[in-house]
Design goal:
By secondary structure, this protein is mainly alpha-helical. The chain has helices spanning 7-10, 12-26, 32-46, 49-61, 66-71, 83-96, 98-101, 105-114, 117-139.
């Protein structure tokens, strides 16, 4: 697949707006590993190879296990996730698929059990951001595999859950 264009070069101002949202989400107090799981799951749903590659690499830098990364697409059946993570993943799916789900009340109620109002809004900002990045990368065919994380891979990486 050949890249159609580099959206960040064509519209640096637009890209900067999304980067500001990313910085806000990162500083929101939500756990970095939770955010990576959310970004990975939304990217899987949207079929964004570039973002799947990026967020599996970033999750590893935060010490995420291979087992949990492999299980994200089947998190409903996998025992590797906390109740808070499950609520976040369900919220991610509902918001990402909003045209189909309209974010059901039961998903909201479960998310509210595990997240304060501010945390839920910030989590939603994270989901909005990754869905935006997915749409840019897919539309303009950003090639997967070239992304390198800022930090070296953590020694916590393993084939078993942590």
């Amino acid at each position: 697949m050949q890249q159609r264009l580099s959206y960040s070069k064509v519209s640096p101002e637009g890209t900067d707006i999304l980067q500001k949202l990313e910085r806000y989400v990162k500083s929101s107090g939500l756990e970095a590993d939770l955010l990576e799981l959310v970004k990975l799951r939304a990217s899987q749903i949207n079929g964004c190879a570039y973002c799947i590659d990026m967020h599996t690499k970033d999750a590893r830098t935060h010490g995420e296990s291979e087992q949990r990364l492999y299980g994200v697409s089947a998190w409903h059946e996998a025992p590797f996730y906390s109740e808070r993570e499950r609520a976040a993943l369900a919220w991610t799916e509902a918001v990402t698929l909003i045209g189909k789900t309209h974010v059901p009340d039961d998903v909201y109620a479960e998310a509210r059990k595990h997240f304060s109002e501010k945390e839920l809004v910030d989590l939603t900002f994270a989901i909005i951001a990754i869905n935006s990045w997915n749409r840019l990368a897919i539309s303009f065919r950003t090639p997967a595999g070239s992304y390198q994380p800022d930090h070296p891979t953590s020694k916590k990486n393993s084939l078993v859950s942590q």
